[in-house]
Structure formats: structure tokens, C-alpha cells
Amino acid sequence: MNNILQRVFVAFLFSLALVKPVFAFADDSEQVRQTVEQNVLEVVDYFEKEKQYYETDPERFFRNMDLALSKIVDFRRIAARVMGRFARKASKEQRDRFVETFKKTLFDTYSKTLIESGTFEIRVTKAAINSRSDRRASVDLEVMSDNGNTYPVIYSMYKTDEGEWLMENVIVFGVNVGLAFRDRFESQMRATRGDIDAVIDGWSVKLDIEQPKGS
Questions:
Q1: Where are the domains of the chain?
Q2: Could you point out which of 22, 33, 87, 156 has its C-alpha 20 to 30 Å from the C-alpha of 137?
Q3: Going by CATH, does the domain composed of 3-201 fall within 3.10.450.710?
Q4: pLDDT at residue 5 greater than cutoff 80
């Protein structure tokens, strides 16, 4: 994956934090969009303050990023979807371990790229409640790099029983990242002849996302 696409995928990791909980009274799509938009500056602020610790105190950096993201991203739901049908066959310990492995590989793989990626801007363009379910919504964003290129990203959210909106998937350049990870998990399960522990131990989050021609 080239440097620009690395930035877009890193922006996926970082801007997960842009989608802070939206409570039940904010069920209108415009309110969802505004709520996400209002939190952009807050998260950028937070990241700017914490990134100094990436080299000097990496444990603090990763711990704080984990705490921030885990409040607003349903990593357990995402990990279960990545495991797909194999989640039912896995033990609770294996499911828990994969959640932690999934998070750690995201942080380890893309944090350095994020720190070194230079200036980029994330702009929320619209949000929409799913017409078939008022418990599903999508948020469209544009990631603008420092060289002027703009890249489309779509976030999928769901509403919890407590009325919060949490992130559950992302689409980059039309590629459903959750499904791509699921395909990766299934492929590794075949390669290891169904050894879930081996798949977890060797898990990687690197994806070769192709930039569409003309973008």
C-alpha cells in the first residue's frame, strides 16, 4: 500500500475517534452529522497533545488511545464480525484474545505512519439514517491530504440499547474493510486447517487497498 493509501487507512483508525456517542435524542441524520463534525476539533486537539508520548512513553500513548477509542468504537462487535462464523466455534478466551490482538495490530501497524504522515484534514460531509432501520446510520467523510488530494471514506454506525451510536465498520475507496478482514480471517483458517489460535497469533491488519484510477 503506497504512502497516500497508508494515510487514508491511518485516517480510518484515527478518525474512528471522531464518532463520539450520539444519544437517543439525536436520531435525526443532520444532528448525527453535526455531532460528529463538532467532535473533530476535540479529537485533533487530543491527538496533538498525546502524540509527543509516542516515542518517549509509548505505553501511555497506546493506553490513552485505546481508552479513547474503546469508548466510541465497538471493537468487540467488529472483531466478532471479522471472525464471522468461526466466532461461534471459538472459546470466550479466544474471542477476547482476538479483540485485543485486533486492536493492538491496528495501533502497532498504523500509529507510526499517522505520526509521520504530515498534515491532513478530515471533513464530515453528510450522515444518513438507514431507511430500513433507524438503528443504523452512515457518515460520509472526506480525508484531504496535504498535497490537495481528497479521499472518500464512509463510516457505518449502529445504535446501542442505551441509545448511543457506535462505529462498526468503514468503507475506504469503496472497499468494505470489515468484509476484507473477514475474508482474511477465513483464508487464514483454511491455511491453518481450522487452528484459531494460529490465526490469532499471526493476525495482520495490513490491506492492499487500490486507489481508483482518476482519483
A1: 3-201
A2: 87
A3: yes
A4: no
